[in-house]
Specification:
5 strands, three-stranded mixed beta sheet, mainly alpha
């Protein structure tokens, strides 16, 4: 009896290791969405596979166009934000994850509908920009921590895009400005457990004509601030 129980525990542990080493391809998320699988089932499948995806702002609109439901888009953003926060924590408090490709948010190329290190273009796991935690995608904008910077709200950025302000001008503004929420000038990044910029919101903006370059820059600045905030929080743990 005890032997059977022990074997059951070992099998369960091995299955968990196997699932963690096999990230779910983003193409399967799209395929399930198109085949009528419910958003709840898709989310559970992603969660069980322990996969998160390093999605740019424009990727959510592409996924919606491919048939992925808003509920799933919001989960994808939330899980990505949570992983970035955890990578930030590990960069401050340890331990590091090393170079395992399945430990990090999976790079995505939706033009080819592929995901994963060695498949989608990305830095090698464990190699990263010095100002970013290991595993955070290299397209995140540079930190503004310790620098004087303007403040701009996301609604203002979206309004500029809708009114034809050139993409290059908006992207440059985001590179040198901090994002603020639309209410009482509170910072848009609070806790990692709440992704203030949801996946469905990015998809909505893309549907309204906001360019991919601007959406990607919004996501890049949002994540940069999330990392800055996380570093301050976790340094206080030490």
């Amino acid at each position: 009896m005890r032997l059977n129980a022990l074997l059951g525990i070992i099998c369960f542990a091995l299955s968990e290791v196997a699932s963690s080493g096999s990230p779910l391809p983003i193409s399967e998320v799209v395929q399930m969405s198109g085949s009528g699988t419910s958003p709840r089932e898709i989310i559970q499948r992603i969660r069980t596979s322990q996969t998160s995806y390093a999605l740019r702002g424009s990727d959510f609109g592409k996924l919606r166009a491919a048939g992925v439901a808003d509920e799933v888009l919001d989960y994808l953003q939330q899980s990505f934000v949570g992983e970035v926060d955890q990578l930030t924590r590990r960069s401050v408090t340890g331990p590091r994850l090393g170079g395992c490709s399945y430990c990090y948010p999976q790079p995505v190329d939706l033009d080819r509908m592929v995901s994963g290190f060695g498949v989608a273009s990305s830095e090698v796991p464990g190699r990263h920009r010095p100002d970013l935690p290991a595993g955070v995608p290299e397209w995140v904008l540079p930190s503004l921590s310790g620098r004087k910077a303007n403040q701009v709200s996301v609604p203002d950025i979206v309004d500029m895009a809708r009114h034809g302000v050139p993409d290059a001008q908006i992207v440059e503004l985001l590179r040198r400005s901090r994002l603020m929420s639309s209410s009482k000038a509170s910072t848009i990044v609070r806790e990692y457990s709440v992704a203030d910029l949801s996946g469905s919101l990015f998809a909505q903006w893309r549907g309204e004509g906001v360019s991919d370059a601007v959406l990607d820059a919004i996501q890049g600045r949002f994540l940069a601030q999330l990392i800055d905030w996380g570093r301050l929080r976790y340094q206080n743990w030490l």
